[in-house]
## 1
Amino acid sequence: MTATQPGAVTSELFQIASDVPEYRRDAVLDDISSIIDSNWLTEQRFWSRQHSPFNADHGIVLLHHGGECVAYMIIQRLAVAGTSVIYLSGTAVRDTCRGQGFFKRMFDTAMAAEFGDPAAPAEFCLCWRTRNPVIYVLGRAQCRSVVPAIPAETRTGDLDELCLSLAAILYPRQVIETTTMAMRGAYGGLRYRDEPTTQTSPDVDRWFAQTIPYGADAVFCAGWASNRWARC
């Protein structure tokens, strides 16, 4: 599905990523890799035919502008103990197009497709892995509570436990620190060209700099998000 967006930006949604036609897949992977390369120094492709997003439990949103793919978001759907879970498997905006609200646009596009049905759950768990404080702030804004909590706030044990459980499901070989949710060396050979900062949330920038100081470190996050997309 393609929809015209303000500013001559168009969005393309594949709610079921395995529906991406075979003839499009290499081009989609090339676009995703090009966006990643504008932000990261990479030793090899992160998404590829071998590590593929074209699965039935994944969804993909692409943003296009001027004949170029300028942003992407990949989600994964899970269900844990009856809880609907959305994992942000990957998202990035081309370095020349940041600050235009593309994350929210892609997120709303994906979530409206997932939870727009009147019978959809009133709440779901959103989780993501990042070393980018901007992504943390954007993800936190979608949730009523989140772990790790920055700044520190009262944390609910059930969310801590769910976060650790999801990390174990998605990354069974990766050790996660139970107090900070940090994953050391999670990104392997990936390094940011320029370490991102929020410029608006110094407490978050400081926490990231102190807690995951090395380029390959990451933090795994989980939060409770209300379904604001359900149609009456």
## 2
Amino acid sequence: MWRFRKNLRRYREDPDWHYRKRESRDWVRQFGAPGHPFGPRGNHVKHILEGHIRGYEATLFHLAAVHKGGRPATDVSMYSVAVLALPAALPATVLSPASLVRRLAAPPLPPRAGTPVDLSPAHRPRMTACSTDPAFAGLILTEQAIRRAADTKTGWRLHEAHIIGWIKERKPYERIIELAETLANVVEEFPEAVWGWGHPTPGCPSGHTP
């Protein structure tokens, strides 16, 4: 804990970053909660850091996603989360190692977009994906994108003009910044055509193989 406090003090004193200790449960709705990685029974957000990464507005925070029970039998999953603001809204899409979101027992996208696609056995760890627009998913869920998420044990989701990424447990800010850098790499590999995509068509990429 003392290491995190030292880490926190460093960024609180950095003029390039703006820090808040906590946010309300309603605050996460701007990022599409409920939906991965947020809990269906509530979310607790702490240690919010806002700044810029590679030209993107970035929001970093620790998340306790409540997915079962209530006092005193509350069950939560802990995540470190990075959010980048995008230049345009894109169809809701999610890609994640299945182990990162299994305990949430919640639909990956709000509103429900159908049954996620299991990308196994070609990928380890087991990967899962879903999108409101199968054709759009076919453009961005490339083999390289899937392998990067698998290798870094990172889940990410597009919600309107945001890309939201998460990793397991509470990590120091340097690790969450690395997560944000990974998200920037994902976005910068999107084909140019996606930025003029328009309105998504409901559905899920059943049988889709990126």
## 3
Amino acid sequence: MEESYETKTKSGKIEERILKDKGKFVRYTYIDKATGKATKDKLILIGKDQKAYFMIPTGERELAIPAHFDLGTSVKDGEMTKNIKNILDEIK
């Protein structure tokens, strides 16, 4: 039996859930070296459409702002440094 792809909003309006893209993602955070606090995250979505967003904390929610990205960008992964392309290649 096929599950319904429709949903009802809080106001009672019926909406359909339609797949737009699928793929891999990488999310990393930016840490202020002076304070040690996280300032924002970057979310990179790799699918048919390649997109990136800065995720800015705004209290209880996060604001997603479109951002550019480079697959050659390096990030710290534990004690190692890896670039985004290598991290995505590790994902099955």
## 4
Amino acid sequence: MNVVLFILVNVLLCAGLIGSYMYLRKLKNLIGYHLGMNISMTVSTVSALSIGGLWGYQFPYYSTWVTIIATVIAMLIGMIFGALVDYQTIVTGVSGGIMAGLMSPMVVMHSHHPVPILIFCIFLFFFAILMLCTSVKV
């Protein structure tokens, strides 16, 4: 993968996370307990799938470090989004980040055709972010 494309996709994923967090933080009083758990778990899971898959595709010979980094990043994302509601949603986001972070690089690194699954994971990330941001108003 081209280094510029790799950096661009990482910046796009970070921009999606920051934008959705800022939007959800404004509406934090409308987020209930169950929706908060869904938000923290979904965001940490799709983030781990996207980041772990992207980094696993870019650095296939460093699978151990990619798995560790993807897991830690997904745990932090679950913590940050879970902090919008309460402590139990933090725990839910962290546990979702752990599970998805441990398996996300394997999805791309052990695929015969990794590009379609990587594109699908990135599409799934933005679809989930959009779905969660629109679900608060409903």
